[in-house]
Amino acid sequence: MSRPDRFTGRVAFVTGAASGIGRATAVAFAQEGARVAILDRTEVALQRTAEAIREAGGEGLVLACDIARPEEVEAAVAGTVATFGRFDIAFNNAGVENIAAPVADIALDEWDRVLDINLRGTFVCMKHEIAQMLRQGGGVIVNTASGAGIRGVAGGASYAASKHAVIGLTKSAALDYATANIRVNAVLPGNIATPMMDRFTGGDIQKAIDLEPVGRLGRPEEIAEAVLWMSADLGAFVTGAAISVDGGWSL
Prior knowledge:
Layout: E1 11-14, H1 20-31, E2 35-40, H2 43-55, E3 60-64, H3 70-84, E4 89-92, H4 108-136, E5 139-144, H5 157-176, E6 182-189, H6 195-201, H7 205-211, H8 220-231, E7 242-245
Parallel strand pairs: 1-2, 1-4, 2-3, 4-5, 5-6, 6-7
Helix pairs in contact: 1-2, 1-8, 3-4, 4-5
C-alpha cells in the first residue's frame, strides 16, 4: 500500500524507466511524493511513464539516456540536478537480456553488448551518482541484479555473469561509502511479467511460470515495493544487501 508522504521532498533518478520494473518503480515513487527523473534510450519510449507519473499527481523529468554511453549518463545526472537541485535516490534498473546460447557459442560482440549495458553501464551510473551524493551529503542507490546473479542459468552465461558482477559491485560500493551516508543495495527479481520476459521466452510465458515455485510470474509493482522499502527511512540500516524477490526461483 502506498504512503503518500514517504518520499515527499525527495528526488528519485530511475534508469530503464520506459516499461516494466522501471516504469512501475518510477510511478510508485511519484505516488509517494517524490519528483522523478526517468531515463531510457529515447524520450518517445518514456512518454507513457511520464503520463502515468502525471496521473499520479507527480512531477517527472524525461531524459533520453543510453547508459552504455558515459557522456549521456553524466549529462543526465547534471540535468537532474539542474532541474531538481539534487537527487536522493538512484534506481539503476536499465539492462538487457542475452541471446540464449551455451558458452562456447556466445559471440564476442554479444558478450560485450550484455556486459557493456548490464555491468559497465551500472558502474558508470554509480560513478556519477555517487559523486553527486558526496557533494550533497548522502543518498541511496538500488541496483537491479537478478536471481541469475546468485545461480547459474543454462544458455544465459553473459546475463548471469553480468548480474553476479552487479552484486559484487553493489557490496563493494556499500563498504566504500558506508561512512559517507550513502547506502547501496541490490534487488534480485525473479521471473517478472515484463516486456523483457516476453522477449526472452519468445512469447511462451508458461516456460517462465513453470520455473517459479509459487506458480506465477511476479508483478513489476512487487519489485517496486521492495525498491521503495530499501530507499525509505525504515530501510536505513540496510546496505550492501542483495535481496531476492523471486517467488523462490533462486532457492
